[in-house]
Design a protein that fits this description.
By secondary structure, this protein is of the alpha/beta class. It folds into two domains: about 1-270, Alpha/Beta hydrolase fold, catalytic domain (Rossmann fold, 3-Layer(aba) Sandwich), CATH 3.40.50; about 275-395, Serine Threonine Protein Phosphatase 5, Tetratricopeptide repeat, CATH 1.25.40. Helices cover about 50% and strands about 15% of the residues. It contains 16 helices and ten strands. It has helices spanning about 1-20, 60-75, 120-135, 150-160, 190-200, 210-215, 220-230, 255-265, 270-275, 275-280, 285-300, 320-330, 330-345, 350-360, 365-380, 385-395; strands at about 20-30, 35-40, 55-60, 85-90, 105, 110, 140-150, 170, 205-210, 240-245. The strands form two sheets. Strands 1-2-4-3-7-8-9-10 form an eight-stranded mixed β-sheet, with helices on both faces. Helix 1 (about 1-20) crosses helix 2 (about 60-75) and helix 2 packs across helix 8. The longest helix is centred in the N-terminal third of the chain and has 19 residues, at about 120-135. The N and C termini lie far apart (about 50 Å).
Length: about 400
């Protein structure tokens, strides 16, 4: 089963590579005294849209970037989470342990011997990296921070020091870490309990996971996970959610794949996100009204604007395919309205303009149809898309 999952991940990574756009830049940080390379993976069609996106910030580039990028894009492509900008920070001479808090290991009765320079790295994120990202890209205010093992300790530190800097925190291989603390006998579990008790947090998701193979070697991980859920679950609400779990059959690093899927399902539950556009267009009201109403409710629950999927393979739950269904049902005006909304979200999408033109033709509005298809041809030609030929052939039939 695990082998099949990795083959699946490899295949979707190949697909996603062609769909996303990778940008890179460097920051010479005065706070951490190093130059760091930053990778930014932009969603498919980012350049053609006006949308704003949440970000997923990864602290372990070599270990997490490719896998996270693939999973985020696969889930967003299938309307299981919002399209997101995935960002990672490269490592340099100063190891990730250097910037992790030096906790005390209660079970081994010794300190972690981490660098304890977490304050500098937090300043780097807050005052250098995030402002640069905000200035350079269209982002909204929903940010996810992901750490693994030592960087999970930093992730938990960030949560308690700057709770509003990120809205979701994912900690891999951290079932042991939550049972340790700043001093001997102190546990982060109780620190987190006090944190949630005294702070009025606007929005927060905290997910902690370890693999069962780690828990088999360190039985106290089971105790930590049980205590974490027992003590923190009482603070769970509509906008604050916490969860720790152990994933069966997973080890220290291979917990990442299934952990990512579980973490994003925790933040974006499939029961909440799964939607059948064909069912929505059967309801009273126009197709656009019903589809946008669903996403308005979803947006209100997260505090940022969430958009419908515009194009999916083998699914009717996207604007393109459900719009074509409307045309087949002689609901041409609704199709035009839906495709106009697609153009509004993606003004530089040649496909959006083309399908709008097709719908306008069906409403006996040839002048608007010609204008839309010509716009599609111009955009496709400018973007060196092979679709330009198809659009020209369609124009000839007009």
């Amino acid at each position: 089963m695990k082998k099949k999952l990795f083959v699946f991940l490899f295949l979707i990574t190949l697909k996603i590579t062609a769909q996303t756009t990778l940008k890179q830049f460097e920051i010479n940080s005065k706070f951490i005294g190093e130059t760091r390379n930053i990778k930014v993976s932009l969603p498919n069609q980012y350049e053609n849209s006006i949308k704003r996106y949440p970000i997923v910030l990864i602290l372990d580039d070599a270990l997490l970037f490719e896998t996270t990028n693939a999973i985020v894009n696969q889930l967003s492509n299938t309307t299981r989470m919002p399209e997101s900008i995935v960002i990672s920070i490269s490592s340099r001479e100063k190891h990730r342990n250097y910037f992790a808090p030096n906790l005390y290991n209660n079970n081994r009765d010794r300190s972690y011997n981490y660098g304890n320079h977490q304050e500098e790295f937090l300043q780097f994120l807050e005052l250098e990296l995030l402002p640069k990202i905000k200035k350079s890209y269209r982002i909204n205010d929903f940010r996810t921070l992901i750490g693994f093992s030592p960087s999970s300790a930093f992730t938990l530190y960030t949560l308690m020091e700057k709770p509003d800097l990120f809205q979701a925190y994912i900690c891999f291989a951290a079932g042991n870490i939550i049972g340790d603390g700043k001093q001997k006998g102190n546990r982060l579990i109780e620190d987190l309990e006090k944190f949630y008790a005294k702070n009025e947090i606007k929005q927060n998701y905290l997910y902690v996971v370890s693999g069962s193979l780690d828990a088999d070697k360190q039985p106290y991980i089971d105790v930590n996970v049980r205590d974490f859920n027992k003590k923190l679950s009482k603070y769970n609400s509509e906008f604050v959610q916490t969860k720790a779990e152990i994933l069966g059959g997973e080890g220290h690093t291979d917990v990442i794949l299934m952990g990512l899927i579980s973490a994003f399902n925790f933040i974006y539950p499939k029961e909440k996100w799964n939607v059948d556009y064909l069912e929505l267009i059967k309801k009273k009201g126009t197709a656009k009204e019903n589809i946008t109403s669903f996403y308005k409710d979803l947006s209100n629950s997260y505090g940022f604007e969430i958009y419908p999927n515009v194009d999916r393979l083998y699914s009717m739950s996207c604007l393109k395919n459900v719009g074509r269904r409307l045309l087949s049902e002689n609901r041409q005006n609704e199709a035009v309205e839906l495709f106009e909304y697609w153009v509004k979200l993606y003004p530089n999408s040649h496909a959006a303009h083309f399908y709008l033109g097709i719908a306008q033709k069906e409403t006996k509005n040839p002048s608007k149809a010609l204008k839309s298809v010509k716009k599609a041809i111009a955009l496709a030609s400018k973007q060196n898309s092979n679709e330009a030929k198809k659009y020209k052939e369609a124009l000839e039939k007009f």
